Amino acid sequence: MTAARPELSGLEVGQEIGRRTIAVERGTLVRYAGAGGDFNPIHYNDVVARGVGLPGVIAHGMFTMGAAIELVADWAGDPGAILEYGVRFTRPVPVPNPGAARIEVTGVIGALDPDAGTARIDLAVEFEGAKVLGKAQAVVRLR
Amino acid sequence: MPINVEFAGREYPPQAAYEVSREKIREFAVAVGATHPAHTDPSAAQALGYPDVIATPTFAVLVAQRAEAQLIEDPAAGIDFGRVVHAEERFVHHRPIHAGDRLVTVLHVDSVVERAGLAMVTTRAEIADDAGTPVATVISTLAVRGVDE
Questions:
Q1: pTM above 0.90, yes or no
Q2: What is the CATH number of the domain that holds A15?
Q3: How many structural domains is chain B composed of?
Q4: Domain encompassing residue B141
Q5: Inter-chain contact B33–A31, Cβ cutoff 8 Å?
Q6: What's the burial of A87, exposed, middle or buried (CB within 10 Å: 0-12/13-18/19+)?
Q7: Do residue B88 and residue A74 have CB atoms under 8 angstroms apart?
């Protein structure tokens, strides 16, 4: 958090900004359901989840989206510098009981716009080697 | 038909303001694993130039989904929520949301596209503060499955 904040002039397209693993347990989903106001039972009830053709309880897509961007927020040093952030939800993340699903997040500089003072960060967000978020991109204001 | 296609272009009027509290910002930040002090410590947020603690990048979904409920729960739209899958989400922040904000949202149904028994419904929540200044735009696409064959 106290690390120097990145400056646009020192960045190159293709450069990795970092990577992290997000461990998701059932309790993580309960907490997100309450905070995010999403009480769809497919995120806490295996019977309901299987009834709609899922392997079991899955993570909220909005949890995965919200957790993945933290890599970028911490790198930028200012969460308010994230001007745009969009994703496609391409694959569900089943969350075991007991245990944890491990989501792997990697961020790479996708584009630089010196006139606008922004960088586009492309996120690869994967579970068991398959993409769970598609076209996950954030535009960040830098100095 | 999983949704009434005539809903494309519809606009829902603003509802009561969403009042943003420090505690809700903190609760949501913890839930997504956000640890930056600007979400919990007013002085850390002020050091970055914000008037109070700021929300994480996807917090605006809380505000947007209240507005989206007007469409999803509208019987005339004909959406069966059990058949809905979230397909895409996009946030454009005109400025960060901070504690103390009173946010007013106008919901637009931008498009309803049907193909192969699947309806893709794209909504746009335009979120402004109580002075009418734009704060965030939240674009959400839901895929609604038709009745099984």
A1: yes
A2: 3.10.129.10
A3: 1
A4: 5-145
A5: no
A6: buried
A7: no
